[in-house]
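Batch manifest, entry 17 of 40.
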Amino acid sequence: MNLYDVIKKPLITEKGTTLKEKENKVMFVVDIDANKMEIKKAVETAFKVKVENVATITLKGKKKRMGARLGQRSDWKKAIVTLRKGDTLEYLEGVK
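Output type: structure tokens
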């Protein structure tokens, strides 16, 4: 799996911003089939930082109604990545 297939996008939420400021953790939406080792390797390669820990959470898609039909959004996975003390990601520096 290509490292750009593993990391889909950063997840910027209030909780994610708080984690970044207090505990040096960042959140990403990742491929549902990616494991922790692939996520760690992708983050270290793409952003040139050292990763200490990776926690993953698989979230079930919500059921949504579209008129008379009932559908469901796709399941997705998020990763909370703990960075080494002193390492930061530049693209998140302006977000507060």
